[in-house]
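[SOLVED] Need 3D model of a two-part complex

Original post:
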Amino acid sequence: MDEGKKLHVHDKVFLSLPLLISIIKLSTTAILFYDSLAFHNKHFCTLAKRQMLSMSTNNLSYSDQGGTDSAVEVGQETTPTSSNAGAGFGLFSVDFKKNEDLKEMLESNKESLKLEAMKRVVGLIAKGKNASELFPAVVKNVASKNIELKKLVYVYLVRYAEEQQDLALLSISTFQRALKDPNQLIRASALRVLSSIRVPIIVPIMMLAIKEAASDMSPYVRKTSAHAIQKLYSLDQDQKELLIEVIEKLLKDKSTLVAGSVVMAFEEVCPDRIDLIHKNYRKLCNLLVDVEEWGQVVIISMLTRYARTQFTNPWKEEGVFDERNERAFYESDEEKTRDETEAKPYMMDPDHRLLLRNTKPLLQSRNTAVVMSVAQLYWHLAPKNEVSIITKSLVRLLRSHREVQYIVLQNIATMSIQRKGMFEPYMKSFYVRSTDATHIKSLKLEILTSLANEANISTILREFQTYVKSQDKQFAAGTIQAIGRCATNISEVTDTCLNGLVLLLSNRDETVVAESVVVIRKLLQIQPTQHSDIIKHMAQLFDNITVPMARASILWLMGEYCERVPKIAPDVLRKMAKSFTSEEDIVKLQTVNLAAKLYLTNSKQTKLLTQYILNLGKYDQNYDIRDRTRFIRQLIVPNDKNGALSKYAHRILLAPKPAPVLESAYKDRDRYQLGTLSHTINTKASGYLELSDWPAVAPDQSVRNVEVIEPVKEWAPSLGKTGKSKPAKSSDDKFYSDSGEEEEEKGSGSSSSEDGSSSSSEESGSDAESHVQKNSSQSSEESDKSSSQSEKSSSESDSEKKERKTKTPLQKKTVKPTAKDSDSDENGNIAKEANSSSAEESYSDSDSDSESDSDTHTDSDSGTEHKKETKSKAKPKVEVKSTKEVSLLDLGDFTPAPVTQHKSSVLSPSLLGDLEGLSLSNVSSIIQVSGPAFVPEKSHDLLHRMTGKGLSAQYQFPRQPCLYQPTMVSVQISLTNTTDHPLEQIHIGDRSPTGLNMHCFNTIECLEPEASVTVFMGIDFNDSTQAANFQLCCRRKLPLSGLLSLLYPSSSSSPF
Amino acid sequence: MIHSLFLVNSSGDIFLEKHWKSVVSRSVCDYFFEAQERASEPENVPPVIPTPHHYLISVLRHRIYFVAVIQSEVPPLFVIEFLHRVVDTFQDYFGVCTEAAIKDNVVVVYELLEEMLDNGFPLATESNILKELIKPPTILRTVVNTITGSTNVGEQLPTGQLSVVPWRRTGVKYTNNEAYFDVVEEIDAIIDKSGSTITAEIQGVIDACVKLTGMPDLTLSFMNPRLLDDVSFHPCVRFKRWEAERILSFIPPDGNFRLLSYHVSSQNLVAIPVYVKHNITFREGSSQGRFELTLGPKQTMGKGVEAVLVSSQLPRGVLNTNLNPTQGTYTFDPVTKLLSWDVGKINPQKLPSLKGSMSLQAGASKPDENPTINIQFKIQQSALSGLKVNRLDMYGEKYKPFKGIKYMTKAGKFQIATR
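Solution:
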């Protein structure tokens, strides 16, 4: 221990003091200290004084106190090694010295000394000691170059800034500077600390920093900004509106890294703003598997709430056919078909289905919290016949840690009450082991009881028999209660259970007997007629039973059924009269009851006894008993005043009473959402968000259609970001100006004009890739993302397709003012020709946009048919309008001829080498394509065969680590020669920007007609999102080259 | 989310605290201590304790309570899972997770906790990423650091954090490339007094130790993948591929990790590898009891049963025992009444047995309950479920790795009722 080594003179004195040293000697030393400290700190003195006073009386207790209270309050540190008696004093002296010493070290010039000092300071913080007085010395080091030192200073700052707000402000400028650092880790950590300093004055600065970071290039920094939102919100709730804006923006972020954090911020700041989710719903569903596990939990629970407000109840019908409910689990198939045949009007919303489908794989997660949250999602959202798929996973969780078991069992307990069938096949997994913790045991018992039915009750009872013999008596008692519940629930076994319980009455263990008595009492109450034997038996046992609750139960039974045991009851009362004074309160109360009841039924024998007991009760210490006695006396003993009431005494006291219902403690837990803290503690935890009921009528589904609402947004949900940066660019201006007349125009010579039109518009897949070719990282990033979006969502269900169809006309309407455009487009060639002349036109953002939209709707990747379909549908839209930002394809020639999609074959790199050929080059036109791709299976057009004069190139990110350098991203490019003559010397020409490191493929000597070859490139994007531009050159009659830009795939798809 | 964390040792002292938001006074732990006092066993402390203003969620590992303070609604499993992840990380970093180890490395612990949570929300929990951010302490590094003044803290954002394979660090290099897989199965069983199986299930895991250069892409296929019906994967496993082809395809993390865990449930027939013959009787009125126990192998597929350890909690009435083992050693603790017998290896020709008498409290009536017997054992080179790895292939790298697969069966919670 660091502190141990730094002992000082005084400390040593204390250490060397033998324990036997006289109290007097100690106290004199203490006084010395006290003097020396006096000038330093008044508070301290008083404390020391007080301590010494107490010390003089009791040395030991003093030191104890000193070790805990004063250490914390005064802010010093104990030396762990100091002797018991000396600890209290050692503390004062040493710590002062030590902190001085730390201060010196912190102010020294040596990094190592500072680091050493900071480590010790962190040690103090960790132990909960106060180190706040070092603040000025520490805060100076905030700008240190040494990263570890810096980090430790951050730790310190976050801990104490709240207390020392003025001094904390000194550090702010350092953070502001660091926020501009080129290293994303430093930017992120600066933002983290800045936002963790809970100093209200800097709220505006924080706000600014958050806004800036929310549009940072690095997703890691954006993630940090999402975290900072919550911190700022808790510091100053007035910022809510501004923060919601940031959240809205971040929700549109396509990075999986950001998704979890921003949803967390959403939940914290504005969980009621469901409208923010609409447009991001499908994206979130599709990203879900790729989000880190903690984010998954948060997103799933948010989506559960969302779904309950947006979709209609999938269980409705089942409410009608109630009996079938249970069967549905076993015969899910059958049920399904019936669902259809019986013409149920319910149709599940495709988005609802999407959510269920995309969460299902997460049941295999290693993270128990994720599994549980999927389970609760299915429980609350899935049609009844699908819920059972979660069973297996939940049972698997039972093998996890004790605490996990506890929570999972609780949830299963709640589920098993409503849906026995779900867990019945796994009954044996709930068998109790002798090594289980008590609360686990009782939960398992609870579940077994809920699962019991006529078929399995015998197995369960046999199992219960062994539990009753358990050495854990609390558990045994619980088992007896469980038996009681089984007995009431299943009438076939009531008698068996009762007999078994009666046998237990002779058990040696008191708790077992007592519990049995209580349970028997409840059972007898349900069917009292035939059981006077049992009552007699219990009366015999009465003397041996000492547990108050059991005695009270027997007494109550005697009273209630005194007519069945007319001989015994008075005798029991006689015994009770003798021992009345020494009984527990609850027993006394029941004795009074018994006496009253006997008095009414058998006053001849018991009158005197009753009088006696009532007299005893009258003077009891407990006012409940006195009250009861007074009440009973007035009620049963007739006198002049209250004659009216005593007439009814018999009916009041001996009224038939309803039998108690034995039911589970988990019966009503389902009012809380499963898996929540509130469910676990069975009260509403602060911040618990109710799960709303299903809406009777589903709200408008179209709100989730990303593209329909606002044509501009459809392209880039992250519009806000780019919107700002865009107008600056001249080329963009063109888009806007064009928008009206937009026809298919191609920037044929487009090399210089960056905005060109893509011929590849036919391919819905390739459209998505078209991008603004500028290196402006922002816009390219955007397009990158949005295309990713389109890809992701393309995997949506078939039903989407239908949706799309219906929507297309709608879109046309909103979007396109000029019908002429569309016509001309449909006759693509005409349009093309007309436009080809205008080279400078950026033709169609609109083209690429609308295409990508349609892409989002359809399963375009899934099959070529789909693609065609999309294509034809999408076409009309093409020229309709231009959106602000765009991905463009610049193509030399544009021919809207049908394109056959070439699927690149995947070859191993070694093979590729062999296939490569040789020749030389000629550069002519430059083609700009920027393409995003995430899913390995999906390839994108880099160079269309028309633009490439017969050479077509497609690329894809195989998501394999790059062979050439670890920092490189490998890109697989497949080149196809569609001309009728061989192409020679295909190679990479100029590239830009120069900063990007590229590993080119070897020159391909010759590519025969109709042949294709796959090559690998490595590109180091430097973690940035800038496009990689390069020229693809080859030699043949028609020279060709392309300036191609590739975008770094910012988000990824996971193994799932 | 998680507000603060307190580490409490078994004697009830808070030896470390960490706050992610405003400081919560450690007096909040008093509620925890109360619950701790009430609980008869350390394990019986309820994992979730509500207090007037906070909620305490705790886990107990290595006899240390990790108490998280929560202020508002959060899925309790979220917190519990995170706390366990913290413990795993500590264990990974320091070898053991004890009070002493944590105190010795308090700075590293603090740096780790700082990285793992931001504002109470988990930030980086992947061990490969953490190790790039904060290097684990080793003796060599400590020496180097003191001399050169370099630090344990990485200066760059770990590449994995942003990449598509966040679990693997880049630029891994080894001279010996090797990949080892351990298939470990634990059998949980409850056997009744007559020797018939009440419930038996197998919990299996495949733990891997992969030390391969670069970015290898591995596929692992099984002879009988149908056994793997209920599985959970490390995030690196490509789920789609598993669904379609029943092949595990993954880019492994660097170092040790748990590739998958699976569960063969009680519905499948599970072969029980050992049997126990027992005869434990207490006679009414006498102060003597008889104790006989014999172990034998059964359905072990020809593999030897090793490291057998029998333990049993005898009834409270037993004062002492006088037993003779034919092999191994036995101990009986008269205070806790715990009998344990370290058998070692079972020789099928000469079955080990433990026989003798127990002395009971004079005058006391005979104990109600008969003890349950817990057994631990190991069987090398066999996986009880019959799971077999077919082949392991590597793509994406050119070298030939050394591959190894080991099977083992262990007893999990294997208990036998004697009455």
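Edit: The longest strand of chain B covers residues 402-417.
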